[in-house]
Amino acid sequence: MSETTILNREDMVTAKTSVSVLFAGDSGDGMQLTGTQFANTVAVYGSDLNTFPNFPSEIRPPAGTVAGVSGFQLQFGTSSVYTPGAKFDVMIVMNAAALKANLNNLHHGGIIITDTDGFDAKNLKLSGYGEENNPLRDGTLNDYTVFEIPVVSLTRKALAETGLSTKNIDRCKNMFVLGVLYWLYSLPLETTIETLKTKFAKKLDLAEANIKAVTAGYNFGDETEMFSQHGRFSVAPADKKPGVYRRVTGNEASAIGLAVAAKKAGLELFLGSYPITPATEILQTLAGLKKWGVKTFQAEDEIAGVLSSIGAAYGGALAATNTSGPGLALKSEGLGLAVILEIPLVIINVMRGGPSTGLPTKPEQSDLLMAMYGRHGDAPMPVIAAKSPVDCFYAAYEAAKIAVEYMTPVLCLTDGYLALSSEPMLVPSPDDLASITPVFSPARNADDPPYLPYKRDDRAVRPWAKPGTPGLEHRIGGLEKQNETGNVSHDPENHELMTKLRAEKVARVADIIPDLTIDNGPESGDILVLGWGSTYGAIKKAVEQVLEGGCSVAHAHLRYINPFPKNLGEVMGHYKKVLIPENNCGQLLSMIRDKFLIEPVGFSKVQGLPFNEMEIEAKITDILKEL
């Protein structure tokens, strides 16, 4: 936990620069909603934040068990926050299983707020502690500050006169504990109250009950003697660049990035999609943007989703599809069709644990090689990766720009961590975003030469022909095309030429992408930590820590996976060792080794969890000892 300063000894309000909080309980305890409301409040208050929802794959896993624990972690602070925190400062646990699942990740001396009603004999048995081993009584928690609150009992008391059933009253217990935390961290109730009024606008009795519960929790914190020796805490608003901010998840940011790109390009946006965890929110977000002219199609399967988008692209729309690992595998033949057609298409792949159904709600980076090579034939396409929830907006926007201007499908990689996590986004001015310029072929007169749909410019890019435009009639389909004319061709030399031309076009994307820069640290030294995707925050914090200790370590982060930045090899050559942390078994490492003939140090984590800064810092320290 960050250093503290007593602001007011009478009120015992202690200022902190950052705090990491975990809400944990059964999947039916509303921990995701509670965490989201807390995140909304600190965002409106002005703090920077980073969140990490972590929940089981089952819709309703066994209640009271460790396997059924749902958690929502966030860190908020007065300066830039890049991770949800390696360890928690405060842990709110609604039952014994939530404590058992997460205690090892609580800072020594950290705060535990427990719902003692969730520590009865039944819950203790289900959690694995055993009926006779209550951690609240056996000394397990002696090294922590524990606040025992009978949350269910107090919620029932506060809502006794609402007329609601006991079942509905108990569903408000998460709001009670949220109110306690608002009091503890000197945060206002207004944002949550307004949200509850909107959420339950058609069920006023539930709105009133939840508002009473969160208010009762706040008042409990204010009136009880429980906190008198510890007082309250506060985290000042972050010093941010002026502007309009909005808290977004990575999925929301991806969706908005596509919509803004379509507007910037003067095109209609079409999303052909099939729901799949954890990518569905992109479809849901875009379905709510009809007023922007966005068209969404929920297809019967993944193949229909991508093929409908290919049809929309052929018709002149900015077309996109979204999916996760198993869905990307199903779409692979369609992606090959998009490659041979040479039409613009954005594919957002939200990676999750695999193979097969794997870990549907857990993040992983294990689709990288499938994104690169997962199509039959030589079928290259640009691949870019987002590094943060907000960066999902810019990655999707840039994927659309490359797709439209280079007439190619583009794969944009995010993962379950980025997709479901959130942070404040400074809403950009449209003038600050790069232009997107489609190259449509104009109508032709009867006396013009025959239209050549695959006649390329100096970037090897063919023109975009809208169906129905006079004089632009041409063949389209999955059979190989004759160079320039687009006629079906089985000529061996023509096939080799077209294969090379398609590859050349993708390679030339390197001409417009920026050089790789050092994010943090010296331009040369002992170790370069080379990351991609969602490892950004953990690497950045880890490198900051070792730099403070005087180590010669730097961090660079890849957005462009195919093609690589032109100076990547040169940058890596300035360091004795290159460390590549990945949430897979070394896929980027293999690509780097194959292309640059160096031997990087791999660091893999495939546990369905993102890296934290402590893990990467420890790995850096181990390598430094060997130099």
Automatic annotation (TrEMBL):
Gene3D superfamilies: 3.40.50.920, 3.40.50.970, Pyruvate-ferredoxin oxidoreductase, PFOR, domain III (3.40.920.10). Residues 28-219 form the Pyruvate/ketoisovalerate oxidoreductase catalytic domain. The keyword Oxidoreductase applies. Coiled coil: none annotated. The keyword Oxidoreductase applies. Pfam families: POR (PF01558), POR_N (PF01855). Residues 262-486 form the Pyruvate flavodoxin/ferredoxin oxidoreductase pyrimidine binding domain. GO terms for biological process: response to oxidative stress. GO terms for molecular function: oxidoreductase activity, acting on the aldehyde or oxo group of donors. NCBIfam families: OAFO_sf. This is Pyruvate flavodoxin/ferredoxin oxidoreductase domain protein. It comes from Chlorobium phaeobacteroides (strain DSM 266 / SMG 266 / 2430). The lineage of its organism: Bacteria, Pseudomonadati, Chlorobiota, Chlorobiia, Chlorobiales.
